[in-house]
Specification:
Strands 1-6-2-3-4-5 form a six-stranded antiparallel beta sheet, with no helix packed on it. The relative contact order is 0.34. It has 81 residues and is mostly beta strands.
Amino acid sequence: MRSYIEIVQIRACDVQSGDVVNKRGPDRSGWIEVAKLEELQNGSFVVHDEADRDSFTGLGYDLVWLQVVHELRFNSHLSVD
């Protein structure tokens, strides 16, 4: 199966384990696969990757960019009815 990626914005509080997210926007760098979402006592969230090398903090209403994978059903060079 081939796939294509759509990038959407979600709130930091809605991030889930397994999501691929970026706090910096839809740039080519800065993407991490989420291992866990930790809520701090002050109400902010810390998004951690599996190795705990990359993480970022944000408030629940802060926007993060999420990769959504869709199946690519057709060839790019063939017309579709």
